[in-house]
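Researcher: Quick test of sequence recovery. C-alpha cells follow.
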C-alpha cells in the first residue's frame, strides 16, 4: 500500500488518476516544505464500490479463511497511514507511521462516533454519510460510494492533522489491488527479515535474510501481523522497510529518470489511486531529490501502552507527546560543538556515529545512539542492518580515537575503514549487544529518557537508502 503513493510523487503528470477535494481549505505548510499523507485502504473494492474480481482476491490472498466470497472480506480500514515530510532545502525526508490501532478523537467525522481507532475514522464516516444520503432519497450505488469516500478522506486527513499537529498539503490513497499492481509492475522488490516467518492469514512464508518478493509476496510481507512479537507495530516497520526498498529499487534501476517507465507505472495506477486535485506534481518533483536518492528516515509514532475500550484492544496514546515528538523531529536543536566521549575519553576528536541494529532487538540502535549522544557524540544514521553474528565498530579518517573508545565499550576491536567519511564511526550491533557499560571510563552510558521517540514498543527509526532488515 505505501509504495503506491510514493511511486507517483515523481511522475510528471496526474492525468488519469482519481482526484479528490477532501483537503478543502485546511492549513498548508508555510515554510515551503511539503507534507504528504499516504492512505492505504484494506478494501477489496474498487473506486466505484464494485467488488474486485475473485481471481484478483485469490492472488492477493485477501479473502476470508473459508474462501473468497463474492465481495471479499474486509471493510474500509486505513491500515496504512504515513505522513511524509519533504523539506524545501532538498534535505532528508522524514516519514511518520501512525499505528492503525491508536485510539484517538476524530475530527470532521460524520455521525455519532467521534472516538475510536484511527484506522476506523474512514469507514465509520463513510457508512454514516451513505446512510444519511439514502435517507434523503439517493439510491445510486456509485454516487453513494463516491460521496462516502470523499467524506471519509476528509475525516481521516483532519484527524491525522490534529493528532500530529502539522498541516497536510497533499495525499495519495490506494487500495490492495493498487498496491499489488504496482509492486508487480516494478518487478517485485528486495526485502530483509531478521527471522523466518510463516503466517497462513496473510500468506507470508519467508526465510530469514534478504530475498526478492513478487507482487503477491510483497503484499503478504506488508500485511502480516500474526506471529510477530509486536503485532501491528512490527507490521508498521514492514511497511516502512518496503517503502525504503521501493525507493532504492526505483533509484538503482534508473526508473526515476526514465519518463517512459514512469508513465507505465502511472497507467497501471489509474484505476486504483486517488490524489488531491490541487497537487502540483511538477513543482513537487523539484523537491523530491531526497526521495529519489533514498534519503528518507522513517519513524513510528509513540504509544503509551495497550488497553481495552469498548471490548476492543487499542493502543493508548498521548496526543501532546505525539505532537511534541513530531515537532522535535522536524525541528531538531542545533548540535553544539562536542568532543567525543565527554571531552577527553575519546581523544578529543569530533565524531558522528552511525548505529545500526543487526541483532534483531527492537529499538536497541536508538537506545545506544541516544546514550552516545549524551556523551557528546553527534548522532548519524540510526536504523537496521542485515543480521550480524557479532558487534562491529569501524571508523573513518580522523576518527580513530573515537572509534577505539566506542569499541572498548562493546568489548570489540575497532577497524579502520577508509570508505567512511572523515570523523565518522559506524557501529553495527550483533545479537549479544546491549547499551554498554562504561568500560574504561569509570561510568555507564545514561539511559534514554522516557520521552525518546524511538524507544518503546514502536521501535526505532528505519533508514532509507538501502534494504533495511526488520522483524
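Model:
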Amino acid at each position: 500500500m505505501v509504495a503506491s503513493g510514493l511511486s507517483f510523487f515523481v511522475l510528471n503528470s496526474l492525468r488519469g488518476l482519481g482526484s479528490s477535494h477532501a483537503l478543502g481549505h485546511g492549513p498548508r505548510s508555510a515554510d515551503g516544505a511539503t507534507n504528504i499523507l499516504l492512505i492505504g485502504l484494506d478494501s477489496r473494492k474498487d473506486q466505484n464500490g464494485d467488488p474486485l474480481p475473485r481471481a484478483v482476491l485469490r492472488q492477493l490472498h485477501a479473502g476470508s479463511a473459508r474462501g473468497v466470497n463474492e465481495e471479499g472480506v474486509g471493510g474500509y480500514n486505513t491500515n496504512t497511514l504515513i505522513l511524509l515530510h519533504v523539506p524545501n532545502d532538498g534535505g532528508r525526508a522524514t516519514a511518520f507511521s501512525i499505528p492503525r490501532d491508536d485510539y484517538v478523537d476524530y475530527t470532521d467525522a460524520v455521525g455519532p462516533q467521534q472516538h475510536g481507532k484511527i484506522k476506523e475514522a474512514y469507514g465509520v464516516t463513510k457508512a454514516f454519510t451513505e446512510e444519511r444520503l439514502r435517507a434523503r432519497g439517493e439510491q445510486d450505488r456509485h454516487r453513494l460510494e463516491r460521496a462516502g469516500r470523499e467524506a471519509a478522506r476528509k475525516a481521516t486527513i483532519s484527524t491525522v492533522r490534529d493528532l500530529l499537529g502539522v498541516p497536510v498539503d497533499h495525499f495519495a490513497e490506494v487500495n490492495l489491488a493498487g498496491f499489488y499492481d504496482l509492486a508487480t509492475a516494478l518487478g517485485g522488490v528486495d526485502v530483509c527479515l531478521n527471522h523466518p516467518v510463516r503466517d497462513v492469514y496473510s500468506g507470508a512464508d519467508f526465510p530469514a535474510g534478504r530475498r526478492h518478493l513478487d507482487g503477491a509476496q510483497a503484499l503478504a510481507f506488508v500485511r502480516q501481523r500474526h506471529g510477530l512479537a509486536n503485532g501491528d507495530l512490527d507490521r508498521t516497520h514492514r511497511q516502512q522497510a518496503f517503502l525504503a526498498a521501493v525507493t532504492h529499487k526505483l533509484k538503482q534501476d534508473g526508473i526515476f529518470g526514465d519518463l517512459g517507465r514512469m508513465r507505465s507505472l502511472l497507467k497501471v495506477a489509474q484505476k486504483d489511486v486517488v490524489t488531491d486535485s490541487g497537487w502540483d506534481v511538477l513543482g513537487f518533483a523539484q523537491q523530491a531529490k531526497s526521495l529519489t536518492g533514498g534519503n528518507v528516515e522513517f519513524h513510528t509514532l509513540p504509544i503509551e501502552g495497550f488497553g481495552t475500550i469498548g471490548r476492543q484492544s487499542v493502543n493508548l496514546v498521548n496526543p501532546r507527546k505525539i505532537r511534541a515528538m513530531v515537532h522535535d523531529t522536524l525541528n531538531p536543536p542545533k548540535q553544539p560543538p562536542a568532543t567525543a566521549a565527554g571531552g577527553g575519553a575519546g581523544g578529543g576528536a569530533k565524531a558522528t556515529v552511525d548505529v545500526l541494529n543487526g541483532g534483531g532487538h527492537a529499538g536497541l540502535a536508538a537506545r545506544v545512539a541516544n546514550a552516545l549522544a549524551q556523551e557528546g557524540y553527534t548522532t548519524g544514521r540510526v536504523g537496521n542492518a542485515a543480521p550480524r553474528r557479532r558487534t562491529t565498530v569501524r571508523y573513518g579518517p580522523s576518527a580513530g580515537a573515537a572509534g577505539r573508545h566506542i569499541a572498548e565499550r562493546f568489548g570489540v576491536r575497532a577497524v579502520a575503514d577508509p570508505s567512511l567519511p572523515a570523523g565518522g564511526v559506524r557501529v553495527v550491533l550483533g545479537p549479544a549487544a546491549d547499551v554498554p557499560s562504561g568500560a574504561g571510563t569509570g561510568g555507564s552510558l545514561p539511559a534514554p529518557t522516557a520521552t525518546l521517540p524511538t524507544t518503546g514498543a514502536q521501535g526505532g527509526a528505519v533508514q532509507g537508502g538501502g534494504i533495511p532488515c526488520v522483524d
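Residues 340-470 form one domain.
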